[in-house]
Write a structure and sequence with these properties.
Rossmann fold; 8-stranded parallel β-sheet; about 25% strand; globular
């Protein structure tokens, strides 16, 4: 029987400690490489519009696909530019099991992946988190990072000071010690973890501003034309990615330094599969700068969707649906 899950149900059910562990198990195990995100132009009369698909499967257990539409002209209609749904199907019969709000699922699993990486790459005593960006994902990043590190203060920077202030105020109302800052260089001088979730096409975080021991979490830029850090930030860091194929196809933060000849793909120190199974070490000392670049992986959606459905069906806990599949190096 097909069940629908609203955004509120997704956020209520997928607590970060258990979601982070579900992603850890999903990435840890060897499995088939999943297809990269596919994009199709679907606009009419020259209007820009795209359909994105992200499928993933665990043979005999679960299948899933996320459908995303991007219609920039929707602003003229009073509608959001991005819409998303996730469909989970049974891996043995192919029968539909769940239809899930795609934005909520994406935000939860994206933040959980960043926190998973932070557990290996940030300093264990990290207490100050800087959020760069003020969109819907940023509160989730705060909650996820707080699930793995003893965060005592949250700093917020955005290109709109008003929106940065509003986000900081919202966090304060949730009981956090949060404050907006208008000078990004100054904010970086205080941060132990920097989490960026923007749609910037130009570098925001400069390598010269990063202090020793910082962990840089780059989430927002997801095309070769976008970036949140400059070449110096990448060159100064030990760089990790969610998956090799995805990062080397879509991550402008890495592809642009590669194209400029200032950095090499051979310098990537590991992916989430290698971090979670112990094949590659994470942080090596307290002074190094670490960088995690994610562009999103379909296995994250499948693991999160499977966990969501299993939470509503206790009998399914005996067979964890995320087993048997992980991102693998191309």
């Amino acid at each position: 029987m097909l069940r629908s899950y609203s955004a509120a149900e997704v956020h209520a059910a997928l607590g970060y400690p258990m979601l982070i562990e579900a992603l850890r198990e999903a990435f840890k195990r060897d499995g088939e490489p999943m297809p990269l995100r596919q994009a199709y132009e679907v606009g009419v009369n020259g209007s820009p519009a795209r359909l994105l698909t992200m499928p993933a499967w665990i043979r005999g257990e679960a299948l899933g696909v996320k459908l995303v539409t991007v219609f920039p002209q929707n602003a003229e209609r009073g509608l959001g530019a991005v819409s998303s749904l996730y469909f989970l199907l049974d891996g043995e019969t192919g029968q539909p099991r769940a239809m899930i709000d795609g934005e909520a699922l994406t935000n939860r699993r994206t933040a959980a992946a960043s926190a998973l990486a932070s557990g290996y790459l940030s300093r264990a005593d990290s207490r100050t988190l800087l959020i760069v960006g003020t969109g819907h994902l940023t509160p989730q990043l705060v909650a996820a990072h707080r699930a793995v590190r003893p965060i005592e203060k949250v700093l917020v920077w955005g290109r709109s000071p008003q929106r940065a202030r509003a986000l900081a105020d919202a966090l304060v109302r949730q009981g956090m010690n949060a404050a907006p800052l208008v000078d990004l260089a100054e904010a970086l001088s205080h941060a132990d973890i920097v989490s960026c979730a923007t749609t910037s096409a130009d570098p925001l975080v400069k390598g010269e501003w990063l202090r020793p021991g910082t962990h840089l979490d780059l989430v927002g830029a997801f095309t070769p034309q976008m970036r949140e850090s400059d070449d110096a930030a990448v060159s100064r860091s030990r760089v990790f990615v969610d998956t090799y194929p995805g990062a080397l196809a879509e991550a402008g933060d890495l592809l642009q330094p590669i194209a400029a000849g200032t950095w090499s793909a051979d310098s990537i120190c590991g992916d989430l599969h290698e971090l979670t199974n112990g094949a590659k070490p994470g942080r090596l000392d307290a002074d190094e700068i670490t960088l995690f670049k994610s562009v999103g992986a379909a296995i994250e959606d499948l693991a999160a969707a499977s966990l969501l459905v299993s939470e509503g069906n206790p009998s399914s806990h005996a067979r964890p649906p995320e087993r048997g599949c992980a991102a693998t190096k191309a």
